[in-house]
Amino acid sequence: SNGVHGQITVNGHNRDMRVFKKLSTYIMQDDLLQPRLTVQEAMGIAANLKLGMELGKAEKELIVEEILRTLGLWDHRSTMTEKLSGGQQKRLSVALELVNNPPIIFLDEPTTGLDIVSIRQLVVLLRLLSRQGRTIVCTVHQPSASLFTLFDKIFVLSRGMCCYQ
Fold this sequence. Notes:
By secondary structure, the chain is an alpha/beta fold. It is built from six helices and seven strands; from the N terminus they run E-E-H-E-H-H-H-E-H-E-H-E-E. It has helices spanning about 15-25, 40-50, 55-70, 85-100, 115-130, 145-150, and strands at about 10, 15, 25, 105-110, 135-140, 155-160, 160-165. The longest helix has 16 residues, at about 115-130. The protein is globular. The mean pLDDT is about 90.
């Protein structure tokens, strides 16, 4: 009876799950990449699955190239995903979800298991994506003080309740 109650709205409107699923993506804590595919192959499959017949091959290739360049993975496009560093694998997980350009991105502990340099690169990337008009929501456990400055809004939760905003 002490739980949190309320209603979730999107831009002031009741959330229609069919529409919301198309507007948002969820990136899990663990990267679920196919180890025997190259970065380019993984992105090509994602483009074909997410974009279907809407776009031609050349258009899909341009989208993939732009995403890989933006995320600093273009030079690794021929690398097998299992050979990528932890930070590169996390960026590829983000890249795979950017193919259909979702305006809302949820990430579950995206910095877990990464070194400090990779963490900073990832958070700077997420900030760049937010500056492009996307809403980024992520959980981060024990961020460094310098990392706090990279976030626009911070909510600290304890037992499911907001204790700092």
